Structures
1.
Amino acid sequence: MHRFQIKIRTIFLELLLVYPVINIMGCVFFHGDNMPTLSLSYCSILILLYVTDVKKLSRKNIYILIIFAFILILEIYRDQNMFILFVTFIFANIMLSIYSSNKIMVKEYIEYFVKKKNQFYIVQLVFLIILFLFVMKNGLTAGWNTWVLQGPYNYPHTLAYLFLFMMMLDTFYFIEFREKFVILFIAVSFACIILTAVRSVLIASIIVIGYIFYRVFSRKQFIKFILYCFLLFVCIYIAYNYGLFDALLTKSKLALENGSISNGRSSILISSLYALKQGNEYVNTICGVGMTNLLKWNGININANIHAHNDFVDALVGFGLIGLGIYVYNFVKFCKNSFIWMMGTVGFLAYANGLFLYSDIIPILIYAKLLFSYSKIQKNRIGKSL
């Protein structure tokens, strides 16, 4: 029985490792469609394996599932057009909870990914080859008065998010093993994020690079730090001259011409909150209005059928204080090992653009936890040994 349990857990961890290449292969096969179905089906397999392995759910998780079942019934009644977004919200919460559970400790994820680092390099290489072949055949994609890297995905944001999380795992490997060639993977991911022109992901990736400098260089290595900074700026200057930043600059210029560098994020956020006032404000605040009604309201109020581009506002307006409370609880618990760095990257994405709506990256949220948890685990070990 014990061997069977170990095998189930190994399959669970292996699926986390190979997911990026499974994702892009599925995207090419489905021509960019049905990706939420693919990613959520993948999450379903992960959840089934996890439950089969641990054999028991905590009372807290059972209560949360009951609450979700109640909201699910409500969503089916009022919001069938955008029903998939609530399903995505549920799966995001479940995966955040699983990755925060002590049934599989963070150090166990770390030990596995350390053992399989060469396999992940292969996974990432295959991902890049598939993307390269697709772009060579189909070219870049028109968007924001320019051309952006989108690959087989329906939105460049999805590709940018995937690159960011792979970059996080590469950064973990580089910091812990100092393998120089990993810098190439990090640089390629960073360059591809720039080419997608997704600015929220770019800011998060810059914070990841800042974390590299924070972890790698001590106070006694000031000269070495300056040298690496100089090399970084030289690379940026060369990339700028070769047009790597053209799409990003064109998109930012277009946003400024339309009145806001953030493409009106603050106006969208305020408008989304006002959706709660359409009807019974107290009932709406507790139970939400549903994502369909949120999009309809923004379509009327700001002439754009869009969500809030902020996880916490989307959760509040779409699913009420109940949904928001559960999401914040799971999100904070997920980020607790290194709260500042996690909130500066994953938290920033959730606030500035959205996280749970990008279902493709839900299975690999653990990559961020691996990067920012290891140093704290090491410090705890040292503290206990003293």
2.
Amino acid sequence: MNNGNVDVSITLIKRFIDEECEGKLSALTTFDFKKLRGNKTYGCRGRSFDCDDTNLARAIYAVVWGDDFPEILDFNTKDRVLVRGDTLNTFHTLFGRLITTDEDQKQFKGVEHYSPDAELRGKVSNFHSLYHTIGNFFPLPNKNGGTSRAKTLNTYRGGAKYGDYFDLFLRQLESYFLDCPGCDPTITRLIELNRFYFNRFERSKQGFMEFCEVNFLEGYLNEEGSVRTDLTSHFRWWWKRRSTEESYKMEASFYIEFSSGLIGRRADIIINILEQKLNMS
């Protein structure tokens, strides 16, 4: 990767740590990237705001993953990039959109449909900030075929078929790597379109496990190295007749517990790499 791009990215991250984290790199672990909306330096100046595609996130991808994926561009080059950020553990599918303006008493459309108690409201509110932290982001290839309406891997995963649940998407990637029959043809097409990224990995079980290792995704795998099937029922909050209030609470609590643990472990790995590359130990 262009060393100049890496140097610029390192400078931006260090500046952010000094200005927003009191010089403590560890504070980046829990920083809510949603706070960067409207920020001309660290946000998404000149393009639509997206927490996982902010200038700060792009700089982190360049430093952490640049050796593996040199196509990760400098954070301030262009809107359409070959590799961009993706958010792993979704929020809106299970919990719905924020429907209050009071940050101290957050309520979400999906949650409120199930008459939540204060405990569940608190868990969901905390997760609403946590899911926009660096441990929940990773870089994903972004080529879509060149038309404005064509789906990328990111946007296709977020559609109705997969409900933005990452384990369902990851299972399809596993099927592709293992050349399993029945693999989603759209995902296959998008993978082939992004060969510049996926050709780094052998199309095999080992290649799939290497992909997960490079992106710190091992938490989604079982002991055999396959995608776990016990992470969530992939419930959508608007399936109003398919869950009781009690079962919804159990589903939501389990999802938050698993996601929070994975986000924390990935954040620690990312911060450790940044610590080494930024010489901030």
3.
Amino acid sequence: MISGIVLLILAGICWVAIGIAVSRCAATGLNYNIVQMISSAGAALISVPVLFLSGGRPELPGKILLAVFLLHFGAGVANYFNYVLTARAMRLGHNGIVWGMMQSGLLAPFLMGVLFFNVPLPLGRVLGIAAILCGILLLGATRDPGAGRRSSSRARWLIPAFGAFLLAGVTQCCNSLPSYWKIAADSGSVFRTFSCMTGNAAGFLICLEFDPALRRSPRSAEWKIGLLLLLLFCLSNYFFFYNGLNLVAEAGAGSIGYPIPIGVCIIGFTVYCAVHRKERFPLAGWIGLIAVTLGIIGISLR
């Protein structure tokens, strides 16, 4: 259990870099959708030889393996469009508030565990759910301090941020399900990474048909960010996240698999926004982020 929590914390630290990459792309005019294509397609391609050369090829019945692939493929597609909306919301609103709101989608896999997999729901977790919901409402009601008096400014970032929140929940549910099935968890972290990154790359191909801006060659800065994220994706997924998710699920605490790394991720990115980007957090924004963080702690308690 402890080793699983440590692995999930390390995954959360890696995820902070994703938020920083989205924020930098939004601030500098780089296309994060192209960055996603570089990192996801690269991770999927690297996973193929690693899968076979490492002897980590899953020995599972075809139907089970297909189900695991489809779940993680779906997670990858949903995650691609999640970050499409996150990047748009960050261009229009407060980066730290958008990130905290999107990551609150962790409520979905937690509630899935409670409703369908007999995860206990003591009072502390009930209070945690209430705190996260209150935090989301406060984040949604927060006005960007840099938006001036534009009445439409909040709606412009809030709508894509709420869409990202919903897609984050879908992504996390699809990613979490195989860890509840012992036979599916044996598919291994490399296969699950391959499936998810393939879905992410498929999301880019879907957008390619509708967005001419994606048909240009990547800029040098986009290559650099994409290759850095490729390294972090492989490090996080091969060694930290999926292995940690399996360990806590085996201990009967699968519902905390996402709250731990996302709590680390929200705190780390908030510090980045406050210190590096010099973003001013209004009081409602601070209270909302604190409520979400305390809620994450609450639902992580056994």
